[in-house]
Amino acid sequence: MVLSTVTDKGQTTVPLEIRSALGIHPRQRLVWETCKDGSAIVRLAPSVMELAGCMKSDVAYPGIAEETEAASKAWVGEPSKPKRK
Question: Residue 75: enclosing H or E segment and its boundaries?
Fold first, then answer.
């Protein structure tokens, strides 16, 4: 068992043994979840790149030229509607 102490500010140091086991590096974010039994689960937060493609859309990607044109129109205030599949 590995122990750490919570400071008056609510901070704690993740012990080296735990950082090594979980592959935690400086500036990585952690996700904390509480369980009904009073325990907690801690894991690495997914990076933005790990989330890429996880959300589906019914709007087809029109292509870079169409996206650039739509963005240009939006910049000057012209309405633009996405094409549906």
Answer: helix 64-76
User: Which two three-digit tokens encode residue 65?
Assistant: 């030229």
Domain shared by 7 and 41, yes or no: yes
Q: What is the pLDDT of residues 47-83, one digit of tens each?
A: 777 667 777 778 787 888 888 888 888 887 766 566 6
* Domain carrying residue 72: 56-85
On whether both 47 and 75 belong to a single domain, the answer is no
- Residue 22, judged by CB atoms within 10 A of its CB (0-12, 13-18, 19+), counts as middle
Kindly report the pTM of this predicted structure.
0.51
First to last CA, the chain: 55
